[in-house]
Amino acid sequence: MTIETELKLGFSANNLSILLEHPLISGPCKRHKLFNVYYDTPELSLMKSGAVVRERKVLRKTLLTVKLASPSLGGLHRRLEWEAPTTQGQFDFQTLIDDPVLAEKMTMLAPQLVPIFTTDFVRRTWEVEFRGAKIEVAIDLGKIVTKRLDGLLYQEEICEVELELLDGNPVNLFGLARVLSRRVRLHPSNRSKAEVGYRLYQNISMSPVKPANLEINPEADPIDTFQHICFECLYHLQLNDSGILLDNDDEYIHQARVAMRRIRSAIKLFSPVLPMTFVGNWNNIWRDLANALGDARNWDVFSDELLPLLKQTFGNHPDILELEKFAIAQRSIGHQSAIATFGHRNYSVKVISFAEAVMSLKNHPEIKSRQKMILESQSTSTPIIPENTEQFASRLLKRRHRRFQRELSVPTRSLEESHQLRLYLKKLRYSFEFFVQLFPQKKMTPYTKTLSRAQELLGQMNDLATAEILLSKRNLAQLDVATAWIIGRQSGYLSMMPKVIAGLNELKAPWQK
C-alpha cells in the first residue's frame, strides 16, 4: 500500500508547446502510452463506496490498481493505493490488498465486475527537484471513452498536469504549480479521471453546487480548523468556477461568490490567530475577485427577479421594452467580464497561491514566534493556555452576536443603514455555519433560520437599491416608470423593517438558556 499525493491541474491543449518550454521540464522526458480499463459492478457499488478498480496496460505489462477516494484540498488529492502486476481479467485482491477487511469485500465483488469506461492517453513525465522535494511532473493528453446503456460511445478529452509528490512537503506541489503557471493557465481540478469517467457513463452534466456542511474537531487548534474551512471553501469554489466559463447557468456565479465570501468571513473571524500580512493580503484579493462577479450577478438578479415583475405590472410599456434591451446588453457585458477574469491565468495563480499560503501557515514567522512564546511560558508562574477551536469560536461568536445586537439598537434605519445591517447579519450567519455542530441543534436551527429569513428580506431590499443604481447608468433625463416603481417598492420594504428588527431582538443566541 502507498499513499498517493498529487495535485491535478487542467489546461488547454493549445498551450502545450508553451508549457513544454518551461525550464523545469524543457529537458528529455519519459513518454508512455497508457490504456486503462475501469471496472465496477452494474450497480456501481465501488463508486458509491469511494473505491476505484483499474487495469492499466503499459507495453506488455498489465497492472491492477485499487484506490480509495479522499476529499480534495484545493486540487490536492491524497489516496490509499495498491498496485501490482496482474493477468488481464483476474482480480486477485487477496494478494494485492494488505487490509484483510477491504480485501475480503473486494473479493466478494470481483465476480460482478464489468468494464465501465476506459482512459487512453499519452503521458510525458519528468522528475523535478523543487525546494528539497522530489516531484513527478506528468502531462496527460488523450480521452475517456464509455459505452452507455443506449449502446452508443461517448468520450471526453483528457488534458491535465499531475504533480505527484515522491518525497518532501506537499505544500511544494502548490509552489511548483505556481512556478509552472508563469505563462500558461494551470487551474487546480477536484475531478479525477475516474470521477469524469463515471459522470460520462451516467450522463451527469456539470451543475452548480452549494456548500456542504462542515465537520470540525472542537479540540483542534484554531489554525488547523481555519485551514480545514479554507480548503472546504476552495473545494466549493472549484466546483463552480469552471461553470462560469461555460456561461450556461447563472447559479455558478452566485455560488462562486458565496464561496469567496465564506473565505473572507473565515479570514476575518480567525484574524486574531492569523498573521496580519496574511489577513490583509488575502482579504483584499478575495474581495476584488468577488467584486469582479458583481456586475454579472447584479444583472442576473435584476433580469431574473425584478424585470419579470416590471413586465407583469406594466406589460409592453415602451419604458419597459427599452429597459429589457438595456438589461440584456448589460448582462452580457457583465458575463463576458466575469469569463475574462475567471478564465485568466492570474485567477488560477491566485487560487494556487492561496492554497499554498494556507498550507504554509504553521511555518509563518508570526505563528512560530507565538508558538515559541506559549512554549516558553509553560515554565513560568503564569503559563499561557492556548484555546482550542471550541473555546476560540465561542468567544468570537459571542463578540459578534453582541456587535450585531448593538447594530439592531439603531432607532430608525435608512436604506443604506439597512444594507449595513444585512452585511452584519450575513457575516454572523456565515460564522455560525462554520461552527454549527458546537451548539445544540434544537437551539442552533431556529437561530440560523431566523437570521436567514431576515437576510432574505434585507437582500430583497438590497436588490432594489442595487437595481436603482443599475438603472441610473442609462442617464435618463427624467424618471421612467421602472425607476419610480423600484423607489416605491423600497418604501414598502422599509415599512416592514420594525417587524423584522423586533423578531431579531427576540432571538436568543444558541448558548442562552
Walk me through the structure.
This protein is an alpha+beta fold. The protein contains 18 helices and 9 strands. Strands 1-5-4-3-2-6-7-8 form an 8-stranded antiparallel beta barrel. Helix 10 (276-291) runs antiparallel to helix 13 (345-359), helix 11 (294-314) runs antiparallel to helix 12 (318-342) and helix 17 runs antiparallel to helix 18 (481-505). The longest helix is centred in the C-terminal third of the chain and has 32 residues, at 441-472. The relative contact order is 0.09.
Proportion in β-strands: 15-25%
Average pLDDT figure: 91
Low-confidence stretches: none
Oligomer type: single chain
CA-based shape: globular
- Largest sheet composition: 8 strands, antiparallel, barrel
Structural class: alpha+beta
Order of helices and strands: EHEHEEEHHEEEHEHHHHHHHHHHHHH
- The total beta strand count reads 9
Please count the helical segments.
Answer: 18
Helix content: 40-55%
Give the termini separation: 51 Å
